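Morning, I've got a small favour to ask if you have a moment. I owe you a coffee for this, so here goes:

…
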Amino acid sequence: MFTKSKIKEPVNDRIFLIFIYIFLLIILCVVLYPLLYIVSSSLSSSRAVSSGSVWLFPVEFNLKAYAAVFKSSQLMMGYYNTFIYTIFGTIINVVLTVMIAYPLSRKRLYGKSLVMIFMMFTVFFDGGLIPTYLLVKELHMIDTRWAMWLPGAMSVFQVIVARTFFQTSIPPELSEAAQMDGCRDFRFLLSIVLPLSKPILAVMVLMYAVGHWNAYFDALIYLRSEELFPLQYVLRNLLILNAADSEMIANTHQQLRDEGFEQVLKYAMIVVASIPVLLLYPFVQKHFVKGVMIGSLKG
């Protein structure tokens, strides 16, 4: 009778593995603790936060800060604008990236190497902030939503990743078989290529969406009207410039303000601004890893 015998791992490998786990645990604590502290502080009383009683879990749990945050019309308008910028901006980004990356992945496209050279040129040599601003101004996009969408409508890095994915995942024989059945290129792209490209589409959606959600510098340069400001720009004014929204603290007693209520408000605003991206990531995480690995390594 044969008995199953497990090969013992060498001692050096075990020690090395233990060091790796310890190192990853330290990194996890360094990344996780600030997030946990902010969430706990936002759910604690202002007196507990100002006295330094909060270090891990909420102390004297209350939701006054969140109630005050959601009363702010300025913050809610920023939320609305950011959703608009993120949804429509991501759609524009993904459509343009696919329309450029897929033709570049096909061998029969004439001059694709020259197109790639021009695109790579823009990566190494940028026109700069002032020429870009003058171009946006001449196109009459200053203080319009288009200024948040069009100047960064396509990322060369994403085009390269998507092109590599199409090259390795969509064989030319599939295109030839579809053509023999009378399928044209555009129909082939919509009906066959895109359904087979969910991982890379998930990667692009996450990358572009997070970029739009966190963008505030473009708003700082191109936008003038408060009703167009995105959430990150509003948060910058409230958190960094300490320009507290009067609607948030309108019904707050002076004693509560003295106990550091505005500090708790800042923590609550950070949590509210981060939740949508944190909720989006688990849904695309599975495709995200696969898409990045195929799109970057096999090229």
In short: Residues 145 and 228 are 7 Å apart (CA to CA). The radius of gyration is 25 Å. The chain has a mean pLDDT of 81.
